[in-house]
Amino acid sequence: MGRPPCCDKLGVKKGPWTPEEDIMLVTYVQQHGPGNWRQVPTNTGLRRCSKSCRLRWTNYLRPGIRRGDFTADEEKMIIQLQALLGNKWAAIASYLPERTDNDIKNYWNTHLKKKLKKLQMGSDEQDLIQVHNNNKDQFTSSTSSSSSSHCMSKGQWEKRLQTDIHMAKQALNDALSVDHKPNFFVPQVTKPSYPSSTDNIAKLLKGFMKNSPKSNKICSKSSIDEVNAAISSESKISSGVDLSEAFESLFGFDKSTFGSPENSDFSQSNTSPEGSIFQDESKRFTMFENWLLDEIAGGVVDQGKEELSHFSFDESPDFFDN
DNA sequence: AACGCATACAACCGCATGGAA
DNA sequence: ATTCCATGCGGTTGTATGCGT
Question: Nearest residue (Cα to C1') for B6?
Fold first, then answer.
C-alpha cells in the first residue's frame, strides 16, 4: 500500500527554522504538550511539515538539551556505547539524557569516528581504542552470529550465544563504569536539571542577533525586531537583560516548572522514550537488560534470556567500581 | 580580499514499528 | 487479519562557517 506523504509538499517550508517559528512551536507545545504533531502545523500556522516540527522540538527546542562541546567523559561514554550497541543512537542518547540522538550521531560522524581512526594509526589513548575494539568485536560477533546463525548447528549457536551473553555483560560493565559512578544518568541537583527551552531559544536568539548580518539570510531584520518587540513589550526589558528571562516573562512559564520532571507534559519529552525511567536507576538497568536481551537473543532463545535475566546488578556491589 | 576546500551540524528523507480502528 | 496513522530511528544531504592559500 502506498503511504501518502506526511505532509503536502506544496507550501511546506523547508530549511533552517527562524526564531519566530521556534517561538510559535514552543508556545504551542507549552500550551498543548508535545505530541499530536500532525495538528501542530494547522494549529500554529507554521508552514512546516509535522515531522519537521517534531524533529525541531526533540532535537533543538525541548527542555533538557545541552548543546556545545562534549566533555571527555561523554566522549568516552559514546565511544564505549557505540562499540557496545552499534549505531543505536537513540539507545546511546538515553544514557546521555542531555544530548539528543542526532547530536550524538553528528558528533560521532564528525569527531569521534575520525578521532578513533586517527588513534588507531597508533598513538595515545590506547585504552580507549582497546575498549572500543573489544566491545565492537564482542558485539559484532554477537550480531554476526545472529545473522549467520543459519550456518551453525543449534548447539553451536546456543553455545555461542551464551558466550556472547557473557561477553555482553562484561562489555556492559565496561561501558557503564566509565566514570566511577554513573552520574550522567542522574540529573544534577545543584543546577537546573532541565534548562528550559526558553533558554534554548534565548541562546538561539543571542547567537542570532550576534550574527545578525549573516542571519539575515534566514530571517529578516524586521522579524528580529518583531521578536524583540514582543519580548520588550511583554517584559519591558532593556537591552542587556538576559533573554531567557524575557522569554519567561513573555510566555509566562517558569524554568523550574517548565523543565521540571514533575511536569507531566514535558517529562515525557525530557529524554528519549526510555529516558524517563532513568530517574530510577534500578529500573533503568532492568530496561537496559531487557533491551540488551532483545538485541542479542532477538526474542528467540529463551535459554539465554533466562540466563542473563538472572544476572542482577545488585549481585555485583563493585559493579561500578574501577 | 577573494576563493576554494573542509568541517560541523541542522534538517530532511525513507523505512520501521506499534497501536488503533 | 488487515489497514491506516503517528511516531521513532538511522542514514544522508544541504548549507553555514572556518580556515588555509
Answer: A110
